[in-house]
Amino acid sequence: MDLLEDPRPTNAPEFTVSELAGALKKVVEGTFPLVRLRGEVGRVSRASSGHTYFDLKDDRAVISAVAWKGARLTARPEEGLEVVATGRLTTFPGQSRYQIVVEDLAHAGAGALLAQLEARRRRLADEGLFDPARKRPIPYLPDVIGVVTSPQGAVIRDILHRLRDRFPRHVLVWPVAVQGPACPGEVARAVQGFNALPPGGPIPRPDLIIVARGGGSVEDLWGFNDEAVVRAVAASLIPVISAVGHETDTTLVDFAADLRAPTPTAAAEMAVPVRLELLERAATLGARAGRALRGAVASRGQRLADLARALPRPADLTGGASQRLDFLAARLPAALRRLAGDKREGLAAQTLRPGVLTAALRGRRQRVEGRGAALAPALARGAARARERLDQVTRRLEAQGARLGERKAGKLDQLARSLRPLAERGVRACGIVLSKTAPRLDAAGANALASAKGALAPSAARLSPALPLGVIARLSDGLDALDRLAESLSYRATLARGFAVARAEGRPVTTAAEAARHALLDLEFADGAVALGRAAPRRAPRAGATDGQGSLL
């Protein structure tokens, strides 16, 4: 028996793997064109292409599910969520498995939704999104109010009507879908868009945001439980009032908002105060302030009147002083007359007789004459000391000239000759001063005695014996300074540079006309003088003629 021979011959056709996979795909899709599966969402993964892959399972089986990109699902697949998936069965030959292509996904029941809602609430609360400390206060009177709601519903009309009745404000409406798959994204973008408006821009930035929607079932309000909406409301820098559903409805936005309103109409009432009530309150406060001011003025006026009654009359305050003034004014003329009489008697009693004055003047004159007599010897002594100082200077110069030797003898002799006239002039000047000072002092003393009788004592005190000595010392110093100045300004230094001085009859000649009138001229050079006779006048040279040398005169 051949081992390779099939003992059970058959006439079944042969299929390729692809043919079998395609046949199975047609059978499955044709048998189950539309199914609804109830189960729990298992592993969920979202590809970069936008498709969502997840598992549907129960306690005994698992089926793969896929939701293509763009599918409008009522509920978003989340692990652990019990849902009802509507779609069609198909196979995936690449992995030899069957799966359901989900076209709609809904929650399996209210209990599952509430369980998911509670789990999400706890998770967001643990992150601190519902912390009361982070909630912002609602402005008392906002200028601009932003409303996030559907523009076609009754909610926006109720809000506008209530704002118009209470306090009209500028309202900006951001239209959104308030239910369905597009609701969470549009609401979140609306809240973020209001916050992105710049202050002072072309579109005014709201001071308050109201997120509003009418009542409905849990499924209808589910978009306001979305995590993206909750995070957008919690991160808003503008205060948010949540007005979603009726008073018994609660969403996660209510926990994240800064203030929860039971209805959209109540949200409008919370947003603004009543204008009429404010006017009435302002009028009431103004009236109370007026009454309080009038009462305060009246009270202080009464207090002032009471204090005024306790004060004495002005006449009583000034009466005594006025009476004393009148009494003193009546005594003033008699007191002035007595004072003048006393002064007159004292003046008459003083000894102002001519003899007394003459004796006083005589004594003053004698003192002045004595000081004048003592002044002349003092001047003479000062002149003698000055002469001795000049002689000492001369002797020192002569001794120094002798030590310098023969090489400087001529220069020292010339210096001595120039000093001797200066010494003689100093002595003569001292004599002239002495001769002129005494008569002037006598005349000054006489004039002082004649014109300043009462001032002789201070003048005589200033004429002390030390004064002439100081005068002589100053004269001596002045003579020394004049000698030094004369030496520095002497014309002899000029003669040494090649100049000459012309004299006639002992006087300097400074012009040619004056020199022509004298027959004899003396020319003084640095080393001596030369006498010259009158020179014959010279003709003026002809034009263009020259003798080759210049004229000396």
Summarize the structure.
This protein is α/β, with parallel strands linked by helices and 553 residues long. It has helices spanning 17-31, 110-126, 154-166, 183-196, 227-234, 252-256, 264-271, 275-310, 314-349, 354-404, 409-451, 456-462, 466-489, 492-495, 512-516; strands at 35-46, 52-57, 62-67, 82-92, 97-107, 144-149, 170-175, 208-213, 240-244, 259-260, 501-504, 507-508, 520-525, 528-533.
Describe the structure.
The protein has 553 residues and is an alpha/beta fold. It is built from 15 helices and 14 strands. The strands form 3 sheets. The chain has a 5-stranded mixed barrel. The protein has a 5-stranded parallel sheet with strand order 7-6-8-9-10, with helices on both faces. It is elongated.
Write the layout of secondary structure elements.
Blueprint lengths: L16 H15 L3 E12 L5 E6 L4 E6 L14 E11 L4 E11 L2 H17 L17 E6 L4 H13 L3 E6 L7 H14 L11 E6 L13 H8 L5 E5 L7 H5 L2 E2 L3 H8 L3 H36 L3 H36 L4 H51 L4 H43 L4 H7 L3 H24 L2 H4 L5 E4 L2 E2 L3 H5 L3 E6 L2 E6 L20
Parallel strand pairs: 3-5, 6-7, 6-8, 8-9, 9-10
Antiparallel strand pairs: 1-2, 1-4, 2-3, 4-5, 11-12, 11-13, 13-14
Highlighted features:
single chain; alpha/beta; 15 helices; elongated; five-stranded mixed β-barrel; five-stranded parallel sheet
What's the order of the H and E elements?
Answer: HEEEEEHEHEHEHEHEHHHHHHHHEEHEE
Taking all Cα atoms into account, the compactness measure Rg is: 69 Å
Going across the biggest sheet, name each strand in turn.
1-2-3-5-4
Main sheet? 5 strands, mixed, barrel
SS field, number of helical segments:
15
What fraction strand? Answer: 15-25%
Class from helix and strand fractions: alpha/beta
Low-confidence stretches: 429-439, 452-469, 535-553
Helix content: 40-55%
Mean pLDDT value = 78
Distance between the termini: 179 Å
Shape: elongated
Q: How many beta strands in the DSSP annotation?
A: 14
